[in-house]
């Protein structure tokens, strides 16, 4: 990454994000994870201090993309719907007001039923 201009570095980061999405879409989860790890390691290089804020934003966008892809996959795996319903079995009895991706402002409302496997 040495001797790259800011524009070349931005182009490189954009290419890494595209590679991440392509790897994920082609079921190459390990490759996608390696790209995410590679990007997180790029944050340790602070040699060009004036470019670091932009670099931080670009790299965290890639990591956010990876997190969203993982979250969506887990959610879809958990969403084994009961026949005739659209309510995922795992989430039955849980109502998320802001959905599907949780953030710091997400409100979680939980209403347990007596027959729910979530109660003890």
Write the SSE topology.
Elements lengths: L5 H20 L3 H14 L9 H27 L15 E3 L11 E3 L10
Helix pairs in contact: 1-2, 1-3, 2-3
Number of helices: 3
Integer average pLDDT:
75
Largest sheet: 2 strands, antiparallel
Element order: H for helix, E for strand? HHHEE
Give the low-confidence spans.
95-99, 104-120
Regarding quaternary structure, what we see is: single chain
Rg estimate, integer Å: 20 Å
Give me the count of strands.
2
Number of domains: 2
Strand content: 5-15%
Q: What would you call the shape?
A: elongated
Cα(first) to Cα(last) distance is: 54 Å
SS content category: mainly alpha
> Biggest sheet, strands in spatial order?
1-2
Q: What helical percentage do the residues reach?
A: 40-55%
Short overview:
The protein is mostly helical and 120 residues long. The protein contains 3 helices and 2 strands, in the order H-H-H-E-E. It has 2 domains: 6-78, no CATH class; 83-120, no CATH class.
How would you describe this structure to a colleague?
The protein is mostly helical. The chain folds into 2 domains: 6-78, no CATH class; 83-120, no CATH class. 51% of the residues lie in helices and 5% in strands. It contains 3 helices and 2 strands; from the N terminus they run H-H-H-E-E. It has helices spanning 6-25, 29-42, 52-78; strands at residues 94-96, 108-110. Strands 1-2 form a two-stranded antiparallel ribbon. Helix 1 (6-25) runs antiparallel to helix 2, helix 1 runs parallel beside helix 3 and helix 2 (29-42) packs antiparallel against helix 3 (52-78). The chain is elongated and about 60 Å long. Mean pLDDT is 75; it is low at 95-99 and 104-120.
